[in-house]
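Per reviewer request, we include the raw input and output of the structure prediction for the construct analysed in the revised manuscript.
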Amino acid sequence: FRGENSNYTTEYKEGKWHCSCHFFSNWGVCSHTMALERMLSNMLPKEALTTQHTAL
């Protein structure tokens, strides 16, 4: 993701979402992973939409 503040690596790997942003490392979820879940919802496995988020 390229945002106004910085660039972040966001991915869905081995059944879990990951993002390199500071917010995700503290909370295990962020606007970047939520945006990708929404944008890719029709292409992702159902588990990707309800999977636990983990920090990178």
